Amino acid sequence: MNYRKHSIHALLSQTLVAALGMCFLQPLLSETIKVSGHGEVPVPTVKRQKDQAAINQKALGDAEEVARQKAIRQAILQVFPNQDDIQSKLDVVLQTAMDNSATLILDKQVENAGIRDNSAQVDLIVQVDGKALRTLLENNFGISSTAGTEGKFKIYVLSYTLEGMDANRSQPQVLHEDVMDDQKGVHSSSYANSAANASAHASSASLTAAESSSNKGRESANASGDGQYQSNVSGSAESRGDGSRQSISGSAYQSARVSASASASANWDKAHSANVDARKQQSNSSSSKFANSGSAYDDTSHYYHRVVDYADPTKKGAALSNEVRAEVEGMMTTVGFDVATLNVSMMSREFPTEDDLVSAVLNEMRVNPTVSPNDYVAIALNSFTPVSVETHQFTSKVTYRIVRIKDGLALLPAKDITGDSGEQAPSDDVARSYAVKSAMLKVDDILPGEIRQALQKMHRAEKREAAATATSYVIVVDNATALSTSSSIRSALTAAGFKVERSINGTAKVHTLTVALNGKTGDDVLNTIEETMDTFEIETMDNQGARVKAK
Amino acid sequence: MLRKICFCYFVLSAVLCGTAVAETPVRFVLARQVIMADHSSFSYLPQDNELAQTFRAKFEAAFPHQVISLDNQDQRISPYERVIVIIPTITVARLTDELKAGSVHNFDALIVGDVSAIDPWTNANLYSGTRMFSSNFQIGNSAISHLEETAKVAFKESVDKWLDATIDQMRSNFAPFVLDATTLAIPPKTKQFKGGIWPFGSIRGVKIGQTLNGGPGHYAKVVASFPKYSLVTDISNPTRTIPAGERYSLTLVDKPTDRPEPSVELSWLGNSPSAQEGDGIQTLSANAMVNLFDNYLSKGGGIKVLPPHLDDPKAVEQFRKLSQEVSNHSNLVEGNLGTFERDNFVVKAATNPDRKIEIGVLERYHGTKTMPDGTIQNYYRVTLAASVEERTGSEENPLYAVASVVKHTEEHTTVEAPGIRELDPSGTYLTLYRNAVINLAKKVRETAVSPYQMGAWREATVGKTGVDWKGEEPGAFAPLSWFRPGGQIIGNGGESLGSLYKSIPPSHGYLNKSVVANEKLEAGDILRYQSTSQPSLPIVGLELVTNAPIPSWLPGNPWLQRLAGDVIGKSGSAQIIPLQERETVFPGVQRETVFPGVQKISIVKVSALRSTREGQTITFTGQWRCQVRLQESDPAVPPLLQFGIQSDSPVTLKNSSPLLQPLDTGGWGLNYTLNALKALADVGTGNGIKPAFSTVN
Asked: Which helix (H) or strand (E) holds A52?
C-alpha cells in the first residue's frame, strides 16, 4: 500500500489583487481551433457528356464553399460559448467571418471529395485562428465571450510562492513528500550506514550536501513510523533533537521562516544569514542522529523520499506580490472577467497539503463580508527549483485553479504547468522571472480553450436553472418558403396540448413559434417536436429553445 | 552552427522585392564579433576587432541602410518588425602543408565558415551563407622562418573571400519573409501546359491554394507544390500559359514572432569523428560537424534550426552576451492572454521541437597500397548517417519517432610519392568529413525534411501492374491529384529543379480511389493526396540488445537501433521510438521504467556476430531476432510475436593485387548489417508484425 503526505512550508508571497472591471479582449496570438464542415450540392444533369467534368468541378467547388461556411460557423460557436448572444445575428456574423477568412483560416484539408448519388459532397477540415476570429467579432459586433458573466461575479486572484531552494542552490527541491510502503524491505543496514556516512560528510562540506544526506536519512528514519514524521511536519523548535531526522528538519525550516518574517522588508541579507545558520545547526545534528537511525532500522519496511520546501527570505517568498499573480491577474482581466483585489495573507503558516492551503484560503474568504459567495477565487501556487550551480537556471512549477468560494466548485480544475528559464539568465532573480513567464506562456496557449469550456459549462448550468422556471419555449424556423412551413410543428404541439403563437417576419422567411409551457417543461416540448424534424435541419435545439432551418 | 544560438540584429533585405517587401524592409542586427569555433590556426587569423570590423563593413555595404545598432539604448526590437540577427562563424581555420621534393612546402590557408541569419525570437538559424576558401603559398625550407607573416597574409585573403562570398549568397538567396521570383521556362516538348512554373516549392513552405501577387490586378494561384517548384495558374485566366519571366511574390511570414517553419534540433550521435588508428590525425570535432550540417541543411530555407550545443566556452560566452543584448532591446510579445519576453519564446522554441536530427559516423576507412612504381595510393571513406525523428504522442509527453535514416558515403583518394609529394593527411580528412557532412545535409534537406502542414502530402506512383501506394492507402473518397512527368525544369540560376509534373485533368472532373480505375493512368504517373494517417500509426518503442562479443565492424548501438527502427517501422507501419538503454530486466521482474504513450515494445536482439576468413572469402554471420510485446508485460510471458533469421554473407576478395591494407572490414560489415536488418524486417512482414503492432491488446 502506498500513501502520501505533503508538506508545504514556507509560503507566501501573499495575496493580491487588483480590481477592476471588464476589459476588452486583446487579440489572441496562437489559439488554433480545428473545425470541420460538410458541403453537399446537387449536380445538374447535362445533355452533353463532355460537359460533365466541368459541371462536376463546379458542383464540388460549391460544396467546398458550403463546407467552409459550416466550418467557420462551427468555429464562431466554439469561440463564443454564450451562443444566445450571437444566435440572433449569426448570419451577419458568419458573413463577416467569411469575408475575413483569408486571415482567419490558417490551414485547410479536403478530407473527402466526390460525386455520390448525383450530389457533390465535400468534407473539409479547417484550422482557424481563434484569436483573430475573436478579435474580429469583438471589434465588429461588440461580442464578448465573457459578456454574460459581467456583474455576476468577481474573480479574486491569489498567489502563493512555495520557495524550495537552498541558499546555495545546489539542491533541487521536491514539492511533495511521497511515503511508500515497501514490504520487500529493500533497505539494508549497509545502505543505511552509507547514508549516514554521506550525512556526516555533508554536514561539514556544505549545507546543500547535508540536506541531500538528510533525505536519505529519512528513508530509514521514517521506518520507525509515520506518526513521528507527521508531528514533524507541523514543526516546532522544541522537537529538535528528539531523535528523529525529520523533526529536526522541520524545526530548522521553521526557524528559517521566522527569521524571514521578522526581517521581512527591513534586511534581507540578515534574514538570509539567519536561514543559513539555522540549517547549518540542524545539518550537524542530523548526521549523528541519522547514523543511529541507520543501525536501529536495519530491516525497515517503509521508505520515502522528499525534500522540504524551504522558505527563501531572500526574495519573493516574503514579497508582496509575484510574477505569477501578476500574470494570472492579467490573463483573467484580458479574458474579460471582473477581477477584484483582496489580501489573504498566509505568511508563515504551514499546510500539510496543497489542498489544505486552498481550503484555508476559501475559509478566510467566506468570512470576509466584502466577498460574495458566488465569487470565484483563482489560486496559483508557484515553486522554484534551481537546476544547477553553474548557471542561474531555474524551473518554475505553477499550479493554478479557479474555484467558487461558496462551495469550491471548480471553474477551472487544478493544473500543473512547468517553465524553464533557460541557461542564459544573468541572475537568479531574472531566471526566476523567466521561469515563471515560460510557465505562463504555456498557460497562455491553453487558457482560452479552458475558459471557453468553463463558460460553456457555466452557461449550461444557468440554463438548467432557468429551465426550471421557464414559462415559454421559442422555436425559430429559418428558410421558410411558405406560411405552412412550420405547420407540422405547430400541429404536433397543439395536439399535445400546448398553446402556440406564431409570428412571421416581413418576407415570411422566418417563423417564430412561442410555446406557452403552462407548467410543462422545455423537455416536454422537445419530445413533442422531435418527430417533426425530418423536414428541417436542426441548428440548435435544447430544453431552452430551438432554431431549425427548413430543408 | 554555433552562431545560431543567439541573437540579434535586424535587417531586411533586399532580396525580396515586390511591393510588400519594399514597404516593410528587413533590418539586421550584426553580432559584435566573428565567432571562432576552431582555434587551431587562431594565431594566423586577423585579430577579433579587425575581423569584426571587416565583417561589419562588408555587410553594411551589401545591405545599405538596413543594419541597426543596439548601441542606442532607445533602440527596441518590436515583435511586428522584420528583424534578423546576423552571426558570422569561422568553423574551420587550418593551414595544410604539402611537401614537394622534400624541400618545398605548398601551404593552403583554409577557411570554412558561414554567415547565418538567426531568428531573434527563437534563436533558430533560418539561413546560412557558407563557403570554404583557401589561399595558397609556397615556402622553401630555407625561408620557413617567414611562415607566420606569410600565413597571416594568406589567411586575411581567405577571410576576405569567405565573407564576400557568404554575404553575397545571403543577398541573393535569403528570403526570410517574402518569396519573390520570376516564373520559369516550360520544358520544351511539353504540350498543352496551362499555367506556369514558379521556382519555390514545398521545401520553402509553399502550399497549394496560396495566392501569389504579380502586381496590381495580377494574381496566380498555387495548384501544386513540389519540393523545388510550384505549378501556378493565372487566377483571371486559368487556361493561360504563363511564360518565363513574369514576377510573383508570396508573403510567407507576416508575424515575425510566429514563424510557421518546423523547428529542428540537431545533435551528434555515437562516436566522435576520428581518423584511422595510426594516422595520428585530429579530425573535425563532432560539434564542428553538427555546425556544418546546420549550415547546409538551412541553405534551402523553410525550416528553423535550433541552436546546437556548443562546447567551446569562449563561443558560448560570445553567444550568451549577444543573446542578452538582444533580449535587453526586445519589446514584449503579445500572446493570447498575456505578454511575454523574448527569452520565453527562445526557451519555448527549444522545448519539444518538431523534429530532431541526429548525425553520426556509421563507419570510416583508410586503406593504402604501394604500387610497383613506389607510389602510395590512399583510399579514404566515411559513411555518415542522419536519423530524422518526428515528434509524436501527446503534448505532455512528446515522443520522437524515426521517420527515416539517411546515409551518405564519401570517398577520397590521393597518391603520394615519398620524397616527391608528401601530403598532410589532416587536410585529406578535413576534406573527406566536410564533403561528407555537406552532402549528407543536402540529402536530408531534399528527401527527409518538409514543412509541417495539416495532412502531409503523400505520393503514389503508377507502375505497369497498378498503383503503388507505398504504405497506408488513402480513403475511398480522399481527393487525388494526378500528374505526369515531363522534361527537366531549369531554375533561374541554371540549376535543375527536377522533372516537371504536369497536372492531368480527370475525365469526371475529380479523382479519388473510387473512380481512379476509370482513368487512363500511365506508368510513371504519380497520384498525390493528403494523409492524416501518420498520427494514427501505432507508437512502438524499440529496444536493442547486442550480445558480446561485439565485432568492431558493427555500427554502435545507438545507430544500430535507429537503422533497425527505420526498417521495422516501415515494414510494420508503426512509429518507432528508440528507447534509452535500460538495466537488464530479469524474468519475473517487471520493467521499472514505463514510457508514456508507447503502446508496444519491439526488442531487437543481435547475437553470435562474427566474421571469418577462409582463403579469399570473408564470411559475416550473425543471428538477428525480434520480439514484440506489451511494454508492461513480464519478460517471462511469451511475446506477442517473435521471429528471427540466421544471416550469413560471404565477401570474396578479388585478385587485383595489391590489396588495400588493412582489409575493408568496416565497409563490408556495414553492408552486411544493413542487409540483415532488411531481411529481418521482411521476415517480420511475413510473420504479421503489422497486425502485432496495431492490434489493441
From this structure: helix A52-79
Q: Is any Cβ of chain A less than 8 angstroms from the Cβ of B346?
A: yes
Instruction: Report the C-alpha gap between B629 and B637 in whole angstroms.
Output: 9
Helix, strand or coil, per DSSP, at residue B244: coil
pLDDT, mean over chain B: 86
Distance CA A525, CA B658 (A): 97
Kindly report the pTM of this predicted structure: 0.73
pLDDT of residue A273: 26
B223 to chain A: which residues are within 8 Å by CB? Answer: none
Gap from B579 CA to chain A (nearest CA, Å): 24
Taken in order A144, A148, A151, A157, the sign of the CA dihedral is: negative
What would the grid cell of residue A401 be?
Answer: 485553479
Q: What are the grid coordinates assigned to A39, written together?
A: 458541403
Amino acid at A47: K
- B477 contacts A113? CB cut-off 8 A: yes
Within 8 A of A57 by CB-CB distance, chain B residues are: 509-510
The nearest CA of chain A is from the CA of B423 a distance in Å of 44
R_g over Cα of chain A: 32
Residue type, A127: Q
Asked if residues A15 and B320 have their Cβ atoms less than 8 Å apart, the reply is no
The alpha carbon torsion through A530, A531, A532, A535 (nearest 10 deg) reads 100
Q: Please name the member of B344, B512, B532 whose beta carbon is closest to the beta carbon of A113.
A: B512
Q: Please, what's the largest Cα pairwise distance for chain A? A: 101
- Of A53, A426, A447, nearest to B324 by CB-CB distance is A426
Task: Quickly state the pLDDT bin for A445 (edges 50, 70, 90).
Answer: confident
Interface confidence (ipTM) of the complex? 0.72
Q: How far apart are CA B397 and CA A365, in angstroms?
A: 37
Using DSSP's 3-state secondary structure scheme, residue A198 falls into helix
Which of B235, B250, B336 would you mutate first to test chain A, the one with the most A CBs within 10 A? B336
CB contact under 8 A, A441 and B344: yes
Closest CA to B392 of B538, B265, B264: B538
For residue A120, the chain B residue with the least C-alpha distance is B510
Strand partners, A384: A396
The answer to whether B356 and B405 are in contact (CB under 8 A) is: no
What gap in Å lies between CA B286 and CA A256, rounded to an integer?
A: 48
C-alpha separations of B326 from B48, B109, B168 in Å:
21, 34, 25
Query: Is the CB of B337 inside 8 Å of chain A's CB atoms?
Result: yes
- Which residues lie across from B625 on neighbouring strands? B605, B644
Indicate the residue of B327, B453, B508 with minimum beta-carbon distance to A56. B508
Phi-psi region of A435 (alpha: psi -120 to 50; beta: other; left: phi over 0): alpha
Is the pLDDT higher at B87 or at B586? B87
Q: Which residue of A has its CA nearest to B350?
A: A422
β-pair type (A394-404, A302-305): unpaired
What's the rounded Cα separation, in Å, for the pair B102 and B142?
A: 12
A52 contacts on B by Cβ (under 8 Å): 508-509
Name the grid cell of A206: 556544505
What is the spatial distance between Cα A432 and Cα A420, in angstroms, rounded to a whole number?
A: 9
> pLDDT value at position A309?
39
